[in-house]
């Protein structure tokens, strides 16, 4: 083999995929799965940068093993897409400071030739979000699919939701679990037991014990004891408490009509804070409800405005529009309009850029979907341009075909919600 003039910057770039742990005994062995991943990653970097260095991979592997202990966290973070960013799609309108509150944990378990790894966790008083990746041979098709797992704290099961998608190369699958505390709040530090029983169609056992630390999130959580009575038509409600955390906004309300109303809420800049869920229980006299919303855009918000609404039981047929001519203006009745400005194709992905003029623009934008020539629906994901702009959006539709003529389908806001503008009220946060 001929000698190669190796640029030291290339070496340093490759070594960025490893972290040195000086406290670790340097007499160690990598498991086969990690070794293959490291080797594959280095090959890619080398071939992409300099194809002439094809014989250098083995030498670099030797150097990494001699110089430093390989910390798996570096590889997990390096090869995985920033899956937490998907939360901004899942919860478009949720502007979480991920860097400040994310805990890098990288804990993994191996079974059936497949690795399940949790690499990032973020938590507040009653919510945990953890990102995971599934790693293995790309031909292991049965391990590509939804992860079935049980989560427990102190022996108690935790309610869960999941968003996931396929990966690439050695990442077979990736996703985010969202866990909810049904009763009470999480401690500042606690152990979370994870028991994965299947990955896609692959049965197995992947067990992890994660130490969760939410001290920073707790420090930045504010609780406002409001205890304010309001009349909304025939209903009498009491705004008991508002809790703002880095991940969410919780509003506790009691009312006398068994949860007849829901609420769009806005900060003091007029930005809508998106509704994400509800927990409730009732007795013969009153209904107790905890409304969950996204985190506040401005953490120094001084007041919240509530717009009560009722969901319309019978929703009519949507309006359809041809998107061959742009710009396209879509009337939204009393709630303004939506203007489709441009389309952007990228293989089987279609991005639709639109501007929304209305009181609840985020809700209006997410009301959009596509209809193909077989009347099959294609639903998209909304991505706001930035936290200071709640009127310009991109709707992303996956798995579409540029050769098919699609139509845009939408409903007017008043066809889905009965807004009670005359009952709107404002609550001070103090």
Q: Can you offer a commentary on this structure?
A:
The chain has 430 residues and is an alpha+beta fold. The chain has three domains: 81-216, Immunoglobulin-like (Sandwich); 220-311 and 419-426, Immunoglobulin-like (Sandwich), CATH 2.60.40.1640; 317-409, Immunoglobulin-like. The chain has helices spanning 8-15, 32-49, 56-67, 72-79, 87-90, 98-101, 215-219, 361-365, 413-416; strands at 103-111, 114-123, 127-135, 147-153, 156-157, 159-166, 171-180, 189-199, 202-213, 222-232, 235-244, 248-255, 262-266, 272-273, 275-282, 287-294, 303-311, 319-322, 328-331, 337-346, 349-357, 369-371, 377-379, 381-386, 389-398, 407-410, 417-419, 425-428. Strands 1-2-3-7-6 form a five-stranded antiparallel β-sheet, with helices on one face. A hairpin with a 2-residue loop joins strand 8 and strand 9. Helix 2 crosses helix 3 (56-67). The termini are far apart. The chain crosses the membrane at residues 53-70.
In short:
This is DUF4179 domain-containing protein. By secondary structure, the protein is an alpha+beta fold. The protein has 9 helices and 28 strands.
């Amino acid at each position: 083999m001929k000698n190669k003039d190796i640029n030291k910057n290339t070496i340093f770039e490759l070594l960025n995929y490893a972290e040195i742990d000086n406290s670790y005994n340097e007499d160690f062995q990598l498991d086969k799965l990690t070794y293959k991943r490291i080797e594959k990653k280095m090959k890619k970097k080398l071939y992409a940068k300099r194809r002439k260095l094809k014989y250098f991979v083995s030498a670099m592997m030797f150097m990494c093993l001699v110089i430093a202990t390989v910390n798996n966290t570096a590889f997990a973070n390096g090869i995985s897409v920033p899956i937490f960013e998907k939360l901004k799609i899942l919860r478009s309108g949720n502007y979480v400071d991920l860097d400040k509150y994310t805990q890098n944990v990288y804990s993994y378990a191996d079974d059936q030739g497949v690795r399940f790894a949790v690499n990032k966790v973020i938590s507040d008083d009653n919510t945990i979000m953890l990102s995971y990746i599934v790693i293995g041979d790309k031909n292991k098709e049965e391990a590509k699919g939804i992860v079935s797992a049980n989560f427990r704290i102190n022996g108690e099961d935790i309610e869960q939701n999941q968003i996931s998608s396929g990966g690439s190369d050695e990442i077979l699958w990736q996703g985010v679990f969202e866990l909810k505390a049904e009763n009470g709040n999480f401690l500042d530090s606690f152990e979370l037991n994870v028991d994965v029983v299947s990955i896609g169609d692959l049965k197995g056992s992947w067990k992890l014990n994660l130490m969760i630390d939410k001290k920073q999130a707790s420090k930045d959580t504010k609780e406002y004891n409001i205890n304010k009575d309001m009349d909304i038509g025939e209903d009498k409600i009491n705004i008991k408490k508002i809790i703002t955390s880095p991940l969410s906004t919780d509003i506790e309300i009691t009312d006398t009509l068994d949860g007849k109303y829901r609420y769009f809420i806005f900060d003091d800049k007029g930005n809508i804070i998106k509704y994400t869920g509800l927990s409730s229980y009732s007795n013969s006299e009153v209904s107790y409800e905890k409304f969950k919303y996204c985190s506040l855009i401005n953490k120094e918000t001084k007041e919240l405005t509530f717009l009560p609404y009722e969901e319309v039981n019978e929703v009519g047929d949507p309006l359809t529009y041809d998107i061959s001519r742009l710009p396209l203006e879509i009337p939204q009745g009393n709630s303004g309009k939506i203007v489709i400005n441009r389309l952007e194709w990228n293989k089987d992905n279609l991005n639709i850029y639109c501007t929304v003029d209305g009181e609840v623009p985020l809700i209006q934008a997410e009301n959009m979907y596509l209809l193909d020539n077989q009347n099959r629906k294609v639903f998209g994901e909304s991505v706001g341009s930035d936290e200071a702009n709640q009127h310009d959006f991109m709707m992303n539709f996956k798995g579409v075909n540029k050769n098919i003529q699609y139509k845009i389908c939408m409903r007017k806001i008043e066809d889905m919600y009965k807004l009670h503008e005359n009952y709107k009220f404002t609550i001070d946060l103090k």
